[in-house]
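Good morning N.,

You mentioned wanting to compare the apo and holo forms, so I went ahead and generated the holo version with oxa(dethia)-CoA. This is what I fed in:
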Amino acid sequence: MSKITAAITAVNGYVPDYILTNQELETIVDTNDEWIQTRTGIKERRILKGEGLGSSDMAVPAVQGLCKKRGIDPMEIELLICATATPDHVFPATANIICDKIGAKNAFAFDLLAACSGFLYALVTGSKYIESGQYKKVVIVGADKMSSITDYSDRSTCILFGDGSGAVLLEPSTEGYGIKDSILRSDGSGRVHLQQKAGGSVKPSSHKTVDAKEHFVYQDGQPVFKFAVVRMADVSTEIMEKNSLTADDVAWLVPHQANKRIIDATGRRMGIGPEKVMMNIDKYGNTTNATIPLCLWEWEKKLHKGDNLILAAFGGGFTWGSIWVKWAYDTK
Ligand code: UT7
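and this is what came out, ligand included:
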């Protein structure tokens, strides 16, 4: 029997309507469009407005659209993994809430937390259930309402983040399409540079933690930048070397969208020109777990069966990794 691989057979995305531009941010904090664009590449980001809405409310349309595109009923989903750093609640898992809202009553579901690398971690985890032959329909969704943990009085972070969601369906392939190889890494000593300080078991929420603004993203930008530039480029070149892939063999680099300068540096190290790098940070900013599936969704029509894609991410933890994907279909 031929080996089973986990092919991505559909992709979908969802971003909220509200557009927060650099110009609007200029009226909120001491910043300017030129600084933001030069240092990050961001022009605008989407924000989920409305009382009582969370990450699941963006994941639901993304997954519903995914099922519709592939022509499957949510009852056919056997496993749904939600990669998120901004779950609806500390518990239960947002994945459970998504399954309830879409009527995926036959699925088991859990959240996976690896900050900005979460989508890659979840993709590899989900692929193992397909490769083992246990399941035939696995959904991986990345969803983050970053605006819920962003301090809009801190100019060093509030310009970076946006809200959004993206999802892929994994199904078995016996022709070698899908997840071909992966390298995932983590180094917890980096936690001091990028974290949400309160709200966990070490420092439960209190009036004091709220007053100290410890429920927002804390980031020491420069050390994170230095690690991200080196690690994302290292891991992307490593997966190419490991699989004897040259830059010509790679159709697309699909990088996490944290900073245009980090993406450019990664592409340069891989020898891949900007024309083969997916980049939409200008429109959406850093949507954490949604950046990579949102890129796949936007570029879907340009992807061809057999294309080699290198997915790469770096995030809080620290966590980082790369995945080699052989694209499984042409879009009609
Ligand atoms: O996705 C998860 C992983 N995260 C990342 O990969 C993010 C990595 N880090 C970065 O992308 C960059 O470090 C940032 C975009 C966050 C910051 O860029 P930077 O080039 O590292 O700037 P900086 O923090 O060194 O700040 C340079 C200057 C400072 O002023 P002084 O001290 O030189 O006078 C800041 O106060 O820019 C100032 N600054 C701003 N000025 C205008 C910081 N934020 C702003 C702002 N507008 N929004």
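The pocket of oxa(dethia)-CoA is lined by residues 31, 35-36, 39-40, 116, 155-156, 159, 221-222, 224-225, 228, 258-259, 262, 286, 314-315 (CB under 6 Å).

Happy to go through it together on a call whenever suits you.

Best,
F.
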